[in-house]
Amino acid sequence: MKENLKFEPPELTADLRISRREFVKTTGSGIFLFFTIGELPFLQQEVEGRRASPGLPSDFNAFLKIGEGGRVSCYTGKIEMGQGPITSLAQELADELDVSLDAVDMVMGDTDLCPWDMGTFGSMTTRLFGPALRTAGAQARQVLLELASENLKIPVSNLTIENGVVFDKTSSQHRVSYGQLTQGKKIERHLTQPAVTKKPSEFKVMGKPTLRSDARAKVTGSAKYAGDIQLPGMVFAKLLRPPAHGAKLLDVDLSEAKKVQGVQIIQQGDFIAALHKYPDVAEIALSKIKAKFDKPQSGINDSTIFDHLLKVAPEGRIVAQGGNLQEGERAAAAIVGETYFDGYKSHAPIEPHTAVVKIEGNKATVWASTQTPFGAKDEVAKELGFPPENVRVITPFVGGGFGGKSRNLQVVEAARCAKLSGKPVQVAWSRREEFFFDSFRPAAIVKIRSGMTSGGKIAFWDYHVYFAGERGSQLFYDVPHHSTVAHNSSWVGDPGSHPFATGPWRAPGNNTNTFARECHIDTMAAKSGIDPVGFRLRNLTDAKMKRVLQAAADKFGWKPAKAPSGRGYGVACGIDAGTYVAAIAEVDVDRITGQVKTKRVVCAQDMGLVINPEGATIQMEGCITMGLGYSLREDIRFKDGEILDVNFDTYEIPRFSWLPKIETVILDSKDDPSQGGGEPAIVVMGAVVGNAVYDAVGARLHQMPMSPERIKEALNRG
Amino acid sequence: MEEKIQFKLNGKQTSVTVDSERMLLWVLRTDLGLTGTKYGCGQSQCGACTVLVNNEAVRSCMTPVSEVRGKDVVTIEGLAVNATLHPLQKAFMESDALQCGYCTPGMIMNAYAVLRKNPRASPADILLEMEDNLCRCGAHTRIIQAIQNAAVEMRGGS
Ligand code: FES
Ligand code: FES
After folding, report:
1. CB pairs under 8 A between A and B
2. How many A from CA of A351 to the centre of ligand 2?
3. What's the CA gap between B109 and A631, in Å, rounded?
4. pTM of the model
5. Residue contact A351–B100, C-beta within 8 A
6. CB B135 less than 6 A from any atom of ligand 2
7. Which of B52, B78, B104 is the last residue of a domain?
8. Which fold has domain A20-214?
9. What number is the ipTM of this complex?
10. Burial classification of residue A259, based on how many CB atoms lie within 10 Å of its CB (0-12 exposed, 13-18 middle, 19 or more buried)
11. Residue B92 is part of which domain span?
12. What is the pLDDT of residues A674-690, one digit of tens each?
């Protein structure tokens, strides 16, 4: 296995601010194919100047190169944080270009080498990048065929390609390799018209289970993450932190800290840091800083937060509407009104936010654990007062992101420390800092009022979501009279709503929306005395969702029964990033302790064409395992801006003993466009567990996480 | 107080002159440049920093360097012999038992200690022994599979 991620171009310190001509020159001869993923993000001249990579024109946002020796390189601003594009994107290129997977290098997340990219989130890599990359590969293949035709004096129609070698279909000794064709040539093409990509039946690499190409580096400890970057003269910075969000520094005494040997203390207003060549010694120096803070008394904590949020919630925005709710109410034989709650969750990647910044003259080089390298570049430029083209961000492997590494606070901190100290600086957050400065998944509320007919059909659906955002709020059940309203459409609340930063968390908003919707559907099914799978099928006309739900039910061996059946079976459906998902779980509930053991989870997904089934399966398993955390335990406790969970002892994330038996089904939809795969399966976890708990013991939980305390409480309520 | 501390690191005699109260994790990562051992929590909560000391898995984030004086320390960098990967490393690759890979060195080192002690560890034993190593990406199922596969290979295929 080779490691086909290149973070470290030939000379890390070399001046790489070069013109496009020079860029193409320094990257050697070859065929360059420039293309665009999705829409070009910058339209105005001004923005263009700010965001374009130095030397690279801005009328495309990715490119590939077939270089000397026939190696294929793909340059993209996307990053690898475990979700696997380093392998799946290489697979796509390998197939379109008829080369082996080993001949593909991925150059990712380097702002000097890769064209501008918005960031890696929203399950967009495979959906948007993939098709563009494949088309570019197909076009490059066409260019190579034409070159070979000239070279061999054989018409293109008589040529074929295998493993990077073009040869005559009838006599294979007439052959020429990609390496020979590109030698000494510089050909630049822009992808203009659509090229014909391969049909699934022609795939050799795509669609086949493929192991991760970065695995060797990761199992030997040689894979570099931002914190593993150590530069000559580099120091580690530990920053003085407030005890609570909103706390103000009143008084500080640095004298004891300054006495620590080899330490440098920097201060600019409230920004105070201890710097040392060893991070642990910097930490000791930091602990000797005596600081007094004024702590705010907001009275807002994890139990009052929902009242607070409902009080400050903005007017709603209609997401979808149809029919007439009053008419629906008249048609309903029974009405169900419920409110669902979801607390704050942390992203909690095992690698905390980390960055290294080195300033030389008026240029800065940054290594960052980030999902948005180009965002980091702009932020560092702003902090340092440098033109953006003087800042280069390199993204090494990222140790998990889940949406949380879209903000670049630690990068800006490292830049500031580097500027103030005159040294290369690493800022690596401690776990406590990670829990404090996380952009949490927002606490949110969903209110649903709905009714069903005596025939078990949903008559109306009146849905209000507060603070989760609208992703996943769209109703895919067939309901004649419905209204879906989002109060605060983004996961970043308006000022005065959340007591600390909030942001996107793996499948943002959808976890909360799907929990509420699918628990509510179950309640309606139970009230109608109908089996929960049957109730859903009865109310679905969407053929794809029916197929996915049926696939999950078949795999599980579902036997209809109305809940609570005592079996501990729960079902839930969802749509995220274009992917349809249905899951069925089996749980055991200990009535005395309130503990839930998830025994089995079956998950079916229709995600269109699957590039790497192995990778897609792993993402589903990861989603199911991670999703148990927010469903059962994860909850940030806080009081007056102070975060009370500061490590994994109290903020419990899933462990080995939680593991259910996981079975995944990926529906075969080769002819449909690829959809997202890194997030969908997580959205159903809250509801599937909640519904299974209800089926087991008849207790309905309306709030996540469904902790033992809450389950006991619900059982006592009866 | 700075003192000279000698120990064996990945099979080689090593000597560092450091404050002996400093934690092994930081001495390994910064003074000795072995960055395969990771920081995840600093409080024995996650296992990312797991190394072997005299074949026992320890959390290097809470192990003062003075405690390894004269002992045998193995880190993830010391597991492969020449370029030949350890069966655990191979099994992790083959089972795709990693995503972001940040927890991986700690997982492998802990598993190494488990299998060393009990080459016939059952899946249930393995689960129990790995309980305090955290993975946020949810690679758990495959990690257990990989450890079982490695166990078989380490026993010579039985
Ligand atoms: S860093 Fe040592 S156990 Fe987490
Ligand atoms: S693979 Fe990412 S934390 Fe385990």
Report:
1. 176
2. 9
3. 30
4. 0.92
5. yes
6. yes
7. B78
8. Aldehyde Oxidoreductase; domain 4 (3.30.365)
9. 0.98
10. exposed
11. 87-154
12. 888 888 999 999 999 99
